[in-house]
Amino acid sequence: MSQPRHTPITTPQAPPAARPGKVGRPRKSALPETGALGRERIFQAALALIDAQGLAAFGIRGLATQLGVAPAAIYWHVASREDLVYGALSIALADVAQAMPPGSWQLRIQTVLRRFRATLRQHPHLAPAVANELGCNATLDTALMEHIVAALEEAHFDGQALVDAVNVVVAAMCGFATLELSTAPAGPDSAWGQACRAQVEGIDPARCPALARHQSELANHAFLMRWTGGMDNPLDTGFEAWVDVLIGGLEARSRVLLEARES
Questions:
Q1: What's the CA gap between 234 and 37, in Å, rounded?
Q2: Nearest-CA neighbor of 71 among 83, 80, 12, 125?
Q3: pLDDT band at 263 (very low <50, low <70, confident <90, very high)
Q4: What is the DSSP string of 67-121?
Q5: Which of 33, 74, 100, 200 is deepest in the core (most CB within 10 A)?
Q6: What per-residue string of b and e applies to 146-161 under the rule 16 or more CB within 10 Å gives b?
Q7: Those residues with Cβ within 8 angstroms of residue 230's Cβ, 6 or more apart along the chain or in another chain
Q8: CA torsion, points 151, 154, 157, 162, in degrees to nearest 10?
Q9: Distance (Å, whole) CA 163 – CA 155
């Protein structure tokens, strides 16, 4: 099933004409004076509001109130609420690829993974936007992708093998952090958490002997068996295991590629 497409985050060349029966956006000359209002300031304010209120509560009217402008002034710079979310996401993740340490390709990939998770933990309400593939596309970070591709080139990946390795790294980067920071469904958290805990603690040893043997270790510490989110119950050791497995797998595929070229 195809996913919804979002309007690219670009400044409109001209405001759209008003439709019959609807109020159109004001032309630039009619905009109220907003001082230094611009895309950077708007995205910074959007990020602060999402951090404070959460993604579900975030809206253009609330942002306009925060900035002290009319909603139309924001629409002059961005086309939709989705564009604001992805702009805030690009601001939040802007430093992930900056000042990468020198060293092996393994070190550089590890650094990207750890920085991405650390940054998303600072802005956990953005995790659902990161999990949306189109959201990541809308905020393409060329510096980040350059670091990933250059590191994988050094590891002897090229052609389809390079494409596959890039997908593995990006999935690893986004997947663990967004799954770790997933939250309980809307509604009374205590009831949902109690139900999850009861399911885990009620595992039948006759039907699931392996789960029952390790129930105490897995309970609330393993994906699909948690009732507490990753901000309160971080999965640090699981993340480091994830990084080790990813790097080890890339190293193994790299050796195969190198041996094939040398044979």
A1: 38
A2: 80
A3: confident
A4: HTS-HHHHHTT-SSHHHHHHHHHHHHTTTTTTTPPSS-HHHHHHHHHHHHHHHHH
A5: 74
A6: ebbbebbeebbbeeeb
A7: 121, 124, 180, 181, 182
A8: 30
A9: 13
- Amino acid letter, 183: T
Burial class (CB in 10 A: 0-12, 13-18, 19+), 113: buried
Tokens 């809308």 belong to residue? 138
More confident residue, 138 or 158: 158
- Both tokens of 135, joined, read 């959201």
Q: How far apart are CA 104 and CA 227, in angstroms?
A: 38
pLDDT at 135: 61
pLDDT tens digit string along 159-197? 999 999 999 999 999 999 999 999 887 655 678 889 999
